[in-house]
Amino acid sequence: MTCDGPDCGDALQNLYLFIDREIDDASCEEVQSHLDSCSDCLTEYDLEQVVRSLVSRSCQEAAPEPLRQKVLQSIRAVQVEIDGARVTRTTVTETRIIE
């Protein structure tokens, strides 16, 4: 890719967020405006859309139930660890305030 204009770095940095609609409306408008005026960035956007489309069509198979359960169990274990760390930090902070 030969895109190196002053706004290209920002547009490309926000490209994935733009595609997933995970940025605010003003930023979306900025990226869209840039894509409308920059053929190199538009080419990058189009390429990313094609890749996402291919991956989406290739990933229609559901994970086997034992694997799903194992992943969910791992996620829950991490959530418990995180929640436990929050409680410990809160308790320590409250103790310091009371002292």
Describe it for me?
There is one protein chain. With 99 residues, the chain is an all-alpha fold. Helices cover 79% and strands 0% of the residues. It has five helices and no strands. The protein has helices spanning 8-13, 15-19, 25-37, 39-58, 65-98. Helix 3 crosses helix 4 (39-58). The longest helix is centred in the C-terminal third of the chain and has 34 residues, at 65-98. 7% of the residues are buried. Mean pLDDT is 82; it is low at 92-99.
Order of H and E elements: HHHHH
- Proportion of residues in extended strands: under 5%
Q: Structural class of the secondary elements?
A: mainly alpha
Low-confidence stretches: 92-99
How are the SSEs ordered, and which strands pair?
Layout: H1 8-13, H2 15-19, H3 25-37, H4 39-58, H5 65-98
